[in-house]
Design goal:
Shape: rod-shaped
Helix content: 40-55%
Number of strands: 14
Number of helices: 15
CATH architecture of the largest domain: 2-Layer Sandwich
Strand order of the largest sheet: 6-5-9-8-7
Number of domains: 3
CATH class of the largest domain: Alpha Beta
Order of helices and strands: HHHHEHEEEHHEEHHEEEHHHEHEEHEEH
Largest sheet: 5 strands, antiparallel
């Protein structure tokens, strides 16, 4: 509750208000002191000018020579005092005897204050205390033929100066109040803006949120990528860097996503800014599931938050499960077909037509054994050989003739079995899909060889052929020749090709159909170990 009460915005406003009050108060005091100094200086100049004017008046010298100087000088001095807004104008003899004073009762008494410099012939301006209190006074000598015959003292009391300053106080206070109100309003607006941006949280809460945020980002098992409205990377956690193959120590924040080495499908998803749910993203060696949501706080979107989950192992297991399921279906079909053939043979035997029964059984056995011998003899890799035999059964069930090129040759441990199964299985599946809806004869031919340090997988079908304008998209995620399909097989093939640094091409022979050729460099022992490690890490 204390953190809520004293949020960052509230603390900032209180600090700004305190600073503004101190500054305005200091400025007001400084302005008052400066005004007082200016008023005092103006009073000094004023009394000096009045005193020198009176001292130089010819009637003053004549009055000082008269038998009763006070009778002439007292009314004259009072008229000058009233006309010059001064508090006293005193004309005196060199021995301090006053001939004029605002209080008539003090005429004839001795003047109180400093007159030494004036007696020496120099005017003097001092702050001194007399019968009227503290005052700023000027004492000027009255000369006749070069000698001092009298003195003129003109003064303004400090109380008068202070009263004048107090008269200016309302204007000063109004200016200070206006400055304080303006600064306070600005501070309030700034604190409101900061309160909206920090959601009213206090420093302790923000510190805890940062600590939790940092701990979660480093420990969460999903990749997290935050992009701002300008499609610049705002945040990426450690798992996100690992899944996307980005340098853990590279500075990536505030860089456009188009400048990062990201999969094209992921860049396309981020730039779209649209919400996505469990979209499959293929990198060079991983299968990622992406979820994306726009971020907005009561207004337009501020960017997007993207989460990535690694489904590489799950995808591999699913692929293997699909292969096993296909093989099971093929075996089921073969078992069903074999039961029919066996029933036919037994019926022929019971009918006494043994020669025909032997001939039928021998033909079926020869065909099956020929395909088995051809595949096993050419493909030493047992998993790949089993895959081709299973696919041949599936093809036969669909009415497609699947053959293995007699020139096919592949040794054991040339490439990891999983990658070979991915490439060959998906290429054959796509070929079977292409020819299944076509006119007979429906043929698919598989050729697997090792040539000049490369494993070459070539699948030829008699289907309608792949249009040239679609060749570029053939290995892109989500592409499919089916009207409502979202093909993944060729994308997985492209992933394996990219991982090995291989290449693929699609051609259309003059005789029709499509030839898909994939070349995978055979890695060295170190490269093979690296690929195996990468698969295991995936």
């Amino acid at each position: 509750m204390a953190g809520r009460k004293w949020s960052i915005a509230g603390q900032l406003f209180a600090l700004q208000a305190l600073v503004v009050v101190v500054l305005v108060t200091a400025g007001g005091v400084g302005a008052a002191l400066l005004a007082r100094a200016d008023a005092t200086e103006a009073a000094r100049e004023h009394v000096l000018a009045v005193a020198e004017t009176v001292a130089r008046t010819p009637g003053v010298v004549e009055a000082l020579r008269s038998p009763d100087p006070a009778a002439v000088l007292a009314p004259y001095a009072e008229s000058v005092r009233a006309g010059t807004d001064t508090d006293f104008v005193v004309v005196m003899a060199p021995d301090r005897t006053r001939y004029s004073h605002p209080d008539p009762g003090r005429i004839g008494q001795r003047f109180i204050g400093e007159i030494g410099p004036a007696l020496a012939g120099r005017p003097v301006v001092v702050v001194d205390t007399g019968t009227l209190g503290e005052s700023v006074r000027a004492v000027v000598p009255v000369r006749e033929s070069g000698r001092v015959v009298g003195l003129v003292a003109v003064g303004i009391t400090t109380a008068t100066i202070n009263d004048e300053l107090l008269g200016q106080a309302p204007a000063l206070l109004a200016a200070s109040g206006a400055a304080l109100a303006l600064a306070g309003a600005g501070s309030w607006q700034l604190s409101r803006r900061l309160r909206r941006q920090t959601h009213g949280l206090g420093p302790a809460q923000i510190t805890r949120m940062y600590e939790y945020h940092d701990a979660v980002l480093h420990s969460v098992g999903e990749g997290l990528v935050v992009v701002d409205a300008d499609r610049r990377l705002a945040l990426i956690n450690d798992e996100g860097r690992r899944l996307l193959g980005l340098d853990p120590g590279a500075e990536l924040v505030d860089r456009p996503v188009t400048d990062l080495d990201l999969p094209p499908a992921l860049v396309e998803l981020i730039l779209s800014g649209q919400a996505a749910h469990d979209d499959l993203i293929l990198t060079a060696d991983r299968s990622l599931v992406a979820n994306q949501r726009p971020t907005a706080f009561g207004g337009p979107p501020h960017g997007t938050v993207l989460t990535l989950r690694d489904h590489t192992e799950l995808r591999a297991l699913t692929s293997e499960l699909d292969s096993v399921r296909g093989l099971t279906e093929a075996l089921r079909s073969q078992a069903h077909e074999a039961a029919n053939r066996l029933h036919t043979v037994l019926t022929l035997v019971e009918l006494g037509r043994t020669d025909e029964a032997v001939r039928l059984a021998s033909e079926e056995l020869a065909v099956a054994q020929q395909l088995t011998d051809q595949v096993v003899g050419a493909i030493a890799e047992p998993a790949l050989a089993a895959l081709l035999l299973g696919k041949s059964a599936q093809a036969a069930e669909r009415g497609v003739e699947l053959s293995v090129d007699p020139e096919s040759r592949l040794d054991v441990d040339t490439l990891p079995a999983g990658d070979l199964l991915t490439v060959v299985g998906n290429l054959v599946d796509n070929a079977l899909e292409a020819v299944a809806a076509g006119e007979p004869p429906r043929r698919v031919c598989v050729r697997v060889t090792e040539d000049d340090g490369e494993v070459v997988v070539e699948v030829t079908d008699s289907g309608p052929g792949l249009p040239a304008e679609l060749v570029t998209d053939a290995f892109r995620r989500g592409w499919s020749t089916k009207a409502r399909g979202r093909g993944l097989g060729l994308a997985l093939v492209g992933q394996v090709v990219a991982r090995y640094g291989g290449r693929h091409d699609v051609t259309r022979p003059e005789s029709g159909g499509t030839v898909v050729r994939v070349r995978l460099p055979v890695p060295t022992s170190g490269g093979a170990a690296q690929v195996t490690h990468r698969e295991r890490g995936a």
